[in-house]
Hints:
Layout: H1 5-11, E1 18-21, E2 25-29, E3 37-43, H2 55-69, E4 81-84, E5 100-104
Antiparallel strand pairs: 1-2, 2-3, 3-5, 4-5
Amino acid sequence: MEDCIFCKIIKGEIPSTKVYEDEDMVIIKDIAPQAPIHLLLLPKQHFANIIEMTDEQAVLVARCIKKLSTMTHELGLDGGFRLISNKGKDACQSVEHLHIHILGGAQLADKMG
Ligand code: 5GP
Ligand code: ZN
């Protein structure tokens, strides 16, 4: 998508700190971290959110999360982590390219809302 900031990051047109990349996804550091470790898992395919996800894209996202599960040690997440995917206004989604926040590196707040 032409105007999508995450598509531009994936293509390298906008700089980012990539901590992982393969054929399915990139994982970058969030530019405004809300935890000591705050990463964004970006599937390379552009779709806005889980509501607009096809069955094939759902398989892709599941595969990305499965791969993430094998690299938590390298990412510094041995103590645990929280995955969040915001959808829509009430959840304050600001980038319309599905992404999963990966938060960790310290004791996170008990309340999530
Ligand atoms: P959302 O609010 O859509 O769930 O999350 C979007 C996230 O993208 C925010 O946490 C925001 O800090 C991050 N973000 C926005 N623009 C950039 C950017 O140019 N580079 C990086 N690394 N993160 C970004
Ligand atoms: Zn995109």
